[in-house]
């Protein structure tokens, strides 16, 4: 581990975290795992923090989703026989979801099929499965709603 001295100027990059909220001054707070007790916590970012959108809140895509790219083209998400998800574009054929996001993003969810088994969290877990799922900003580690 690199040792830092108080007063040093550094750039800090935190990849793949979800936004918790944004205040009236433009400061955001993120949801991340606390390094002390491994529990999820909200962390407030200072105004000079650079925040870049990587994916919308509905990410990742699910089978039968319909997404729109920055140019208005539509993509139907299909699952292959191997379980891979591909985005079948109306204009450009079938590609992996990461490729479409990177080359045609930002993407916007247009339609998501309702789950037949009950409520679905936006992270993709159905209600009976809402045990610990660490990538979800909505639910705590014990599966209960934060709200």
Descriptive account of the structure:
With 147 residues, the protein is mainly beta. The chain is 5% helix and 26% strand. The protein has 1 helix and 8 strands, in the order βββββββαβ. The longest helix has 8 residues. The radius of gyration is 18 Å and the shape is elongated. The relative contact order is 0.13.
Number of strands: 8
Shape: elongated
Structural class comes to mainly beta
Q: Round the Cα radius of gyration to an integer and report it.
A: 18 Å
Q: How many individual helices?
A: 1
The sequence of SSEs as H and E is EEEEEEEHE
Helix content: under 10%
Main sheet strand line-up: 7-6-5-4-8
Major β-sheet profile: 5 strands, antiparallel
What's the N-to-C terminus distance?
37 Å
Strand content: 25-35%
Mean model confidence by pLDDT: 76
What's the domain count? 2
Low-confidence stretches: 125-133, 137-147
What is this entry, summarized?
The chain is mainly β and 147 residues long.
Descriptive key words:
single chain; 147 residues; mainly beta; 2 domains; three-stranded antiparallel sheet; disordered C terminus
Detail the topology: elements first, then pairings.
Elements lengths: L17 E5 L5 E6 L6 E5 L21 E3 L5 E6 L5 E5 L3 E4 H8 L3 E4 L36
Antiparallel strand pairs: 1-2, 2-3, 4-5, 4-8, 5-6, 6-7
């Amino acid at each position: 581990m690199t040792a830092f001295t108080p007063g040093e100027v550094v750039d800090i990059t935190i990849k793949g975290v979800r936004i918790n909220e944004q205040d009236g001054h433009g400061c955001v707070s993120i949801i991340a795992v606390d390094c002390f007790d491994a529990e999820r916590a909200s962390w407030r970012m200072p105004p000079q923090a650079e925040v870049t959108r990587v994916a919308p809140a509905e990410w990742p895509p699910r089978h039968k989703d319909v997404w729109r790219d920055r140019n208005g083209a539509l993509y139907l998400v299909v699952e292959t026989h191997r379980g891979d998800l591909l985005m079948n574009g109306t204009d450009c054929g079938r590609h992996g979801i990461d490729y479409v996001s990177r080359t045609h993003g930002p993407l916007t969810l247009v339609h998501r099929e309702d789950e037949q088994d009950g409520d679905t969290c936006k992270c993709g877990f159905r209600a009976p499965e809402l045990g610990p799922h660490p990538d979800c900003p909505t639910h705590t580690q014990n599966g209960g709603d934060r709200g």
